[in-house]
């Protein structure tokens, strides 16, 4: 096989798999090294970007790739798919996702402490949608279940990893107006910190 055939085979495998795939599995199927396979994936990714293709290749972490549609075409893709069963996320669900994504792994009680309301039903719905998953148990009294976001969350929001999340206000380096605000935010952080 030449490079064009290998690239075609990569496209076919990524399209058929529909979930993130490890480079090692792709390389094994192509009978190439992981370095050669990664080079082909990066070339294909650049080609899609340069051609402004409706398809995009997303890289998850250091070793997993997935073919997706570009978010720009999301509305048109939704028109062709039956999305009536997939209700949009509520503001409460988006809040819970933000709490988990920025602080994971977190317990249900942490989520509720941050939001100030019971979040049990929202967490259950997000689990059903596959946007969050259980991430073991925390080393706290009662050994509460911890939650983290999934690859589906990253894909839905067009993120390659959690590093692509927009920075929080404090992380963006925005200066506080006074030292009182700084002390207040530090005491708030201490209250939310697990001890």
Automatic annotation (TrEMBL):
Signal peptide: none annotated. It comes from the Bacteria. Residues 165-195 are annotated as: Disordered. InterPro entries: ScpB_csome_segregation (IPR005234), WH-like_DNA-bd_sf (IPR036388), WH_DNA-bd_sf (IPR036390). The keyword Cell inner membrane does not apply. Keywords: Cell cycle, Cell division, Chromosome partition, Cytoplasm. GO terms for biological process: cell division; chromosome separation. Residues 179-195 have a biased composition (Acidic residues). PANTHER family: SEGREGATION AND CONDENSATION PROTEIN B. NCBIfam families: SMC-Scp complex subunit ScpB (TIGR00281). This is SMC-Scp complex subunit ScpB. It comes from Candidatus Gemmiger excrementigallinarum.
């Amino acid at each position: 096989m030449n490079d064009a055939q290998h690239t075609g085979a990569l496209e076919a495998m990524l399209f058929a798999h529909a979930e993130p795939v490890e480079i090692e599995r792709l390389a094994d199927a192509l009978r190439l090294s992981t370095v050669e396979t990664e080079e082909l994936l990066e070339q294909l990714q650049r080609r899609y970007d340069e051609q402004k293709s409706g398809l995009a290749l997303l890289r998850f972490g250091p070793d997993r790739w997935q073919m997706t549609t570009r978010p720009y075409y999301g509305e048109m893709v939704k028109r062709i798919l039956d999305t009536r069963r997939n209700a949009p996320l509520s503001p409460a669900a988006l809040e819970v996702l933000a709490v988990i994504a920025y602080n994971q792994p977190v317990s249900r009680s942490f989520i509720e402490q941050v939001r100030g309301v019971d979040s049990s039903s929202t967490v259950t719905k997000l689990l059903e949608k596959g946007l969050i998953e259980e991430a073991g148990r925390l080393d706290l009294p009662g050994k509460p279940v911890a939650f983290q976001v999934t690859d589906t969350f990253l894909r839905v929001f067009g993120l390659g990893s959690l590093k692509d999340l927009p920075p929080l206000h404090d992380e963006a380096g925005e200066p506080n107006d006074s030292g009182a605000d700084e002390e207040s935010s530090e005491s708030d952080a201490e209250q939310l910190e697990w001890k």
